[in-house]
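Supplementary Methods, section 5.1.

A reviewer requested that the exact input to the structure prediction be made available. We therefore reproduce it here, unchanged from the version used in the analyses.
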Amino acid sequence: MSSIGNKPLVGIVMGSDSDLKVMKEAVEALEEFGVKAEILVASAHRTPERAARYAETAEARGLEVLIAGAGLAAHLPGVLAAFTLLPVIGVPLQSGALQGWDSLLAIAQMPPGVPVATVAVNGAKNAGLLAVQMLGGKYPELREAFKGYKQKMARQVEEKDAKLGEPRPVF
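The structure derived from this sequence is encoded token-by-token as follows.
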């Protein structure tokens, strides 16, 4: 698919550059649909002013969705959501003794009025795909491309099923 404009529409923020090994899956998912993203390292705890400033200026820079990956206490998605009107998607990162459960709960349990969409632990690919779906409301070409993506997945499942052979019930 061709690119949607020349500037990034999605901002991807992570608390550490070590998170890039997971968060690159969001970048790859967006690239599959021609959506450009910008990437930033900013910590909710170590550089809170940087994170807040990024969120406050995101919309003016043309961004339409933010994706934030965070581990442990996982405050980054919520901090970004507190400082922007843009939708924020949180990616809980597997880390620490609880292997990401702490991150998942921290992101999913946002207080009323500060929503953050939450995907699975290390679910950066789904975060990218969810961003594409959100953008599809404004960009019909993304909506159509996503429809094709889902149809392709369905065909792949049917092809795998056909390889199992007969006899089987058909639904």
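Residues 71 and 93 are 5 Å apart (CA to CA). These observations are discussed further in the main text.
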